[in-house]
């Protein structure tokens, strides 16, 4: 129970469905910013009190479980390491993968619980043979299956999403009001929960440091300088402060961040179009394809609110295994996804979630991308 309206209604529905429910709030941070009224995350002291009031109203036991140390190691430190390596991480994916459906689920099962229920908008469908599949929510606008794409078959066996068939958030808020929940009109959480003031650039500068470096074109020519490569992301246009205009007079965009050389690579907007993405850190949500080494048709989604794009996917052996510090051992295979139309502004570190229809088939953390408009001197991939 995060302290928000979605998990409040999910808990109430689970009780009405006949389940023996215990409310659990996760204490994920001990940083002072998360104690301040008005913090914009989802795990503040105020949130825990909101969750307790709802639990009391429903009439269920309520506990606060401290996962702050594991959250720091598995989510916060990972976030810093990924940016240091020039990648663009998704901390919400890591939190679902390593905290809510790993650390929390492991403890719950050890204590004798059957499942973890959350307020995510997604559905679980059981096929004729009893296998569980993760599917999109009933309403596209509220679908959150993307951030759950990291769940494995075993985790899906112990997951419940009571809001999956709900048509709208307005209906959830109306139900919360009818139940007398004080969180009925509470604003949704946003931004990164462990950066409560929303200043990601400043937060990273304190932990990674800021060192001046070069801004270069894809051919290696220097066109400017920067005060810290970690503050740039692929697709960024503003804040480049380039000393030389492009020959065609058009704006440049960040195409790549190179942490080893401390360089930021820029180029034309069309160079952001990506014709292929791949990642060795891939998992399947439910049963894996019977023959993943044979190319199959699917759709790929690269951001939580992006439209899916038709694509072809295949699992191939890696020429050279990709080592990723702090992650599981590098696989000797990678999931390669080729969109039928170019993706735009994709960065290593992002998550690509693969769908077949409404079903989430699996996901990968993107290790490399291939530009649809490579420069003459470009290698064909950007391996972080």
TrEMBL record:
Any one GO CC term of the record: cytoplasm
The family this protein is said to belong to: Belongs to the MnmA/TRMU family.
Protein name (Swiss-Prot/TrEMBL): tRNA-specific 2-thiouridylase MnmA
Domain tRNA-specific 2-thiouridylase MnmA-like C-terminal, first and last residues per copy: 280-366
Protein species of origin: Agreia pratensis
Residues of the tRNA-specific 2-thiouridylase MnmA-like central domain: 203-267
Keyword set, alphabetical order: ATP-binding, Cytoplasm, Disulfide bond, Methyltransferase, Nucleotide-binding, RNA-binding, Transferase, tRNA processing, tRNA-binding
Gene: mnmA
Residue numbers annotated as active site: 95 (nucleophile), 193 (cysteine persulfide intermediate)
Pfam families assigned to the protein according to its UniProt record, in alphabetical order: tRNA_Me_trans, tRNA_Me_trans_C, tRNA_Me_trans_M
InterPro entries, A to Z: MnmA-like, MnmA-like_C, MnmA-like_central, MnmA-like_central_sf, Rossmann-like_a/b/a_fold
């Amino acid at each position: 129970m995060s302290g928000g309206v979605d998990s409040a209604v999910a808990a109430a529905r689970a009780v009405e469905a006949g389940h023996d429910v215990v409310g659990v709030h996760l204490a994920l941070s001990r940083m002072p910013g998360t104690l301040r009224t008005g913090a914009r995350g989802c795990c503040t002291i105020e949130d825990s009190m909101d969750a307790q009031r709802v639990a009391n109203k429903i009439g269920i036991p309520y506990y606060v479980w401290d996962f702050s140390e594991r959250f720091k190691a598995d989510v916060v430190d990972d976030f810093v390491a990924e940016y240091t390596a020039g990648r663009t991480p998704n901390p919400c994916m890591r939190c679902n993968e390593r905290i809510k459906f790993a650390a929390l689920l492991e403890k719950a099962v050890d204590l004798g619980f059957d499942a973890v229920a959350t307020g995510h908008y997604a559905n679980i469908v059981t096929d004729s043979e009893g296998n569980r599949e993760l599917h999109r929510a009933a309403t596209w606008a509220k679908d959150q299956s993307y951030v759950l794409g990291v769940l494995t078959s075993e985790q899906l066996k112990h997951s419940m999403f009571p809001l999956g068939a709900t048509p709208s958030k307005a209906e959830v808020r109306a139900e919360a009001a009818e139940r007398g929940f004080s969180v009925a009109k509470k604003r949704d959480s946003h931004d990164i929960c462990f950066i409560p003031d929303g200043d990601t650039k400043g937060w990273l500068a304190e932990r990674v440091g800021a060192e001046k470096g070069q801004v270069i074109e894809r051919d290696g020519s220097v066109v400017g300088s920067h005060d810290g490569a970690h503050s740039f992301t692929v697709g960024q246009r503003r804040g480049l402060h380039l000393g030389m205009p492009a020959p065609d007079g058009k704006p440049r965009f960040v195409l790549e961040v190179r942490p080893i050389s401390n360089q930021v690579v820029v180029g034309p907007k069309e160079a952001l179009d990506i014709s292929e993405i791949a990642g060795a850190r891939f998992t399947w949500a439910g049963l894996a394809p019977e023959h993943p080494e044979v190319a199959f048709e699917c759709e790929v989604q690269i951001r939580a609110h992006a439209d899916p794009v038709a694509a072809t996917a295949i699992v191939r052996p890696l020429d050279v295994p990709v080592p990723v510090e702090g992650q599981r051992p590098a696989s000797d295979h990678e999931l390669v996804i080729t969109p039928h139309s170019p993706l735009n502004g994709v960065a290593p570190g992002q998550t690509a979630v693969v769908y077949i229809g409404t079903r989430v088939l699996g996901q990968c953390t993107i290790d490399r991308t291939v530009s649809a408009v490579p420069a003459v001197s470009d290698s064909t991939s950007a391996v972080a």
